[in-house]
Amino acid sequence: MFKPLDGRSVVVTGGTRGIGKGIARVFTRAGTRVLIVGRDEQAARHVVEELSADGEVSYVLADVAQRADCERMAAVAVDRHGGIDVLCANAGIFPAHRLGEMTDEAIDEVIGTNLKGCILSVQACMAALASSGHGRVVLTSSITGPITGFPGWAHYGASKAGQLGFMRTAAIELARNGITVNAVLPGNVVTEGLDDLGEGYMASMTASVPLGRLGTVEDIGYAALFLATDEAAYITGQTIVVDGGQVLPESLEAMEVS
Questions:
Q1: How far apart are CA 8 and CA 86, in angstroms?
Q2: Beta carbons of 36 and 20 less than 8 angstroms apart
Q3: Are 207 and 254 in contact (CB under 8 A)?
Q4: Choosing from 156, 201, 222, 234, which is the catalytic residue?
Q5: Residue 235 pLDDT greater than 80, yes or no
Q6: Is the pLDDT score of 195 beyond 80?
Q7: Across-strand partners of 180?
Q8: Catalytic residue list contains 156
Q9: Nearest to 111 by CA among 161, 168, 156, 62
């Protein structure tokens, strides 16, 4: 039996849509007080209205690629909740650009949000997490970059692999303050972002997953929730792949003969 997380303060960056919204929903239903962080006020208002029936949730507008915004985000969480117990550093973007067409601006945008934003978010929340007594950092990385690759996402893959390099050293440095730092690596998950990739992409990705379906945002949320529990207090610097077995087959032929 897991100890309840009732009343704990949770910050979810990139919480206005997709996986972040799923993480926020799972934590809200678990009885925590959730602060959603995003750049789109209309989307943030909509998520708060949707999730408020399940518990206490609010939002703050911030760009995690900006240090001042991250510091303000942390200050708002402390002001509203009295502290920060869990940071879900989830904010991420994945615009597709082939290497031959990738501009400086495209690289800076992806690395700035996905990797720099992750680092800045942790820095901003460190003091409050240390005061918590059970501080947890959960990063949303990806199988793309650390394990697999996909054309058009070289910069995205680099940012997600970079998060894991950051995680391992951060876990060592923050351990003295009782803070754990871990990462969830989603496979293909059904979100708004996949709609633009077309039905053919969705079908081919589903065919590559041994469990026969794409993941849900809640699948990722539950993994993050586990890493935030007291029972996970001795786990740090680790990754959990949540992909329905997607990275297991060496080819589609392996799926056909299984």
A1: 8
A2: yes
A3: no
A4: 156
A5: yes
A6: no
A7: 136
A8: yes
A9: 156
Report in angstroms the alpha-carbon separations of 138 from 2, 54, 79, 149, 255: 18, 22, 22, 23, 32
- Whole-number Å distance between alpha carbons of 233 and 249: 32
- Vertex 87 angle, CA 119 and 1, to 5°: 140
CA distances from 208 to 153, 160, 179 (A): 19, 21, 36
Beta bridge partners of 185: 241
Which residue, 1, 60, 10, is CA-closest to 31?
Answer: 10
Give the residue among 134, 156, 175, 167 at the shortest CA–CA distance from 240: 167
What percent of the chain has a predicted confidence (pLDDT) above 70?
A: 98
Name the amino acid, one letter, at 52.
S
- Neighbour tally for 75: CB within 10 Å: 13
| More confidently predicted of 225 and 208 | 225
Position 258 confidence tier, pLDDT thresholds 50, 70, 90 = low
* Distance in angstroms between the alpha carbons of the first and the last residue of the chain: 36
What pLDDT score was predicted for residue 158? 98
Q: What is the DSSP letter of 106?
A: H
Q: Are 181 and 137 in contact (CB under 8 A)?
A: yes
Closest CA to 179 of 136, 115, 208: 136
| DSSP calls for 75-100 | HHHHHHHSS-SEEEE---------GG
| Number of residues that this document lists for the chain | 258
For residue range 50-100, what is the model confidence (pLDDT) as tens digits?
A: 999 999 999 999 999 999 999 999 999 999 999 999 999 999 999 999 999
Paired strand residues for 61: 38
pLDDT digits (tens, 9 = 90+) for 100-137: 999 999 999 999 999 999 999 999 999 999 999 999 99
